[in-house]
Amino acid sequence: xxxxxxxxxLPDRKPVVDTAVVGRLIAAQFPHWSDLEIRPVDAQGWDNxxxxxxxEMLVRLPTAEEYALAVEKEHRWLPVLAPALPVEIPVxxxxxxxxxxxxxxxxxxxWLRGEPANRADVGDxxxxxxxxxxxxxxxxxxxxxxxxxxxxxxWFRGGPLQTYDGWTRNALKTLxxxxxxxxxxxxxxRALRVSWDGRQVWFHGDxxxxxxxxxxxxxxxxxxxxxxxxxxxxxxxxxxxxxxTGESRAAFRDRLGVDEAVWERGRGWALWKALVxxxxxxxxxxGLPADAAGVLGEIFAAY
Length: 303
Fold this sequence. Notes:
- By secondary structure, the protein is of the alpha+beta class.
- It has ten helices and ten strands.
- The two termini are 27 Å apart.
- The N terminus is likely disordered.
């Protein structure tokens, strides 16, 4: 398979959507909600512009055509997944269509309460890791029949790591002399060599701290299923190095019961993302970003 940079470059975000545009969309397509206050959420993502709609709902509007591919998938599958999972996930309430104000399909969801996970707000990291692994185990047990395989809708999550090989090699060239690239290349090559048994299971595709909501110190919800699909679940293991450490990482692995091959591929996913983020920052003249460099440190130390 070609590397992802040869498949399609990641799209730029389109012009920012403001509350006036959202208000016109709501008034035209869902007038029964037109009296509700609209305000942007504090932390905006890359794939979607997100707004609160009153106190109980939110509006998500894709920032590019490629990201809009996830809308139909989410409306089809999230209501199927939600009842089988131990914590809340977004379930769509309404689907908007394009008009002169906005060019893509878009969604209204129920607002899920909680704060994005960080180590300071998690009461017990080991319990958090076990709960997260339990969520992923439950997700993987759901019948995958008919589920969406890797593709442009999720940037080929659930497919082979070889998809990202070109990006990774370019990042290693950029970072030569700044990180131990020989060690990074060895870890990457090892992840490429271990094969997947081909058993199709559901995966989230972007298990990251910003998509994990914490309430009262515990995992309360998992959000943003735009990269979900059916395939190799190794991509969901990257969190073991991007957020977990030591005892919590070991507990996460034990609860999931993954074999060495899946674990190696999961580490490869974490390595790819950290390398690409670091290389992009260096190319922009900003040096190594602390968060991504810290992830690399965790990966190298645990190798």
